[in-house]
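Problem: given the chain below (279 residues), write out its structure.
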Amino acid sequence: MKMSRKIMCLLGSSLLIVALAGCGTTERTQPQDSQQEDQQSGDEQGQAGQQPGDGQGQEDQQSGNQQGQEDQLSGDGQGQESQQPADSQGQETQASAEDTEQLPGDIGQAGENTSVRIWGPILRVEDGNVVIDNRSEVSFRGEMVVTVDPEHTRILDGENGYPVEVSELNEGEAVFVYIGPAATMSEPPMVNASLILCKIPSDLRVPDYVHVTAMEEQSDGSYLLSGDNGIQYLVPADCEILPFLTRNVVTLQDVQAGGSCLIWSDERRTAQKIVLFAE
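Solution.
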């Protein structure tokens, strides 16, 4: 009997232990399940949070692309507007340049008074102008109309510097003409003459029409004259100098920068005679 009670007690204790163990397992399982639920809830919230962010990013990207396209269209429009005035200005400049043409050669570098010299035989004299056959390497070769302004064009004897009337010029006579840096595009071309040298003996060196840029006195009393033609002339202290069409007495000291003169010189550019023009 006592043995039965002990057995019953042992069985009861075993059942109690088993029951208690089962309760502990259930309690431990419930927190794990709760953690899984929390994790699932967190994942859902993360996905929910990620979707709005992606949507916002796509909207920002689309907005940025639209803004970029608008900026590009605006920039292209401004570029076309800027190009059109430039093209218009270029056309106006080109149209203006077609009226006259710059003569070939090294001209216009020494100042606005710079002129160039052409030469050739006279073909004819008509309407107060001189038509020559230009044989120089300057300007247009061949027939050329040299316009003569009675008030601004000097026609001089190349031997003594005296004035000559246009009516005294003869066909076939060689002349040396100083002209400006532009010619018309007419056929034949026309140029304006500032000075015409004629009646030059074949054995005489042609004088130079010079705009003076400097006149420097040397230690021996001579002068070094610089012209806009790029040439320097040695002017001896006893060089002959004459005024043009006046009886005024002039000296070498009257030759100043800005003035103009006609210079006869030798092959070494030593002046032999000067005719000084009144400015």
